[in-house]
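Catalogue entry: protein

Sequence with per-residue tokens
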Amino acid sequence: MVAAAPADAQGFEEIRGYDVDIRIEKSGALLVHETIDYDFGVVPKHGIYRDIPNRFDYPKKDDTDRVYRIDVVSVRGSPGTPDQYETEELRRERDRLRADQDR
């Protein structure tokens, strides 16, 4: 007789919850607060990537784009977990935020 392990004990990683709060400042800037509840399963020492678009086509004018600066205000992990991060520009159209437990 073979018994299967319960789904949560198999070691798969998953996003358990995702919540976004967006506030428009008087300056027109957006303040975005994301909460990502991520279960890494049993695999140690890895983090997540968050790719954020920062360049959009502006169709009202030829050969023009709208480009938005992205500033990371903070990154926080759950208690007892590392929360180091770095950012990088990808292909001129998005920024990547890497929150990494292996830093």
About this structure: The chain has one domain: 11-99.
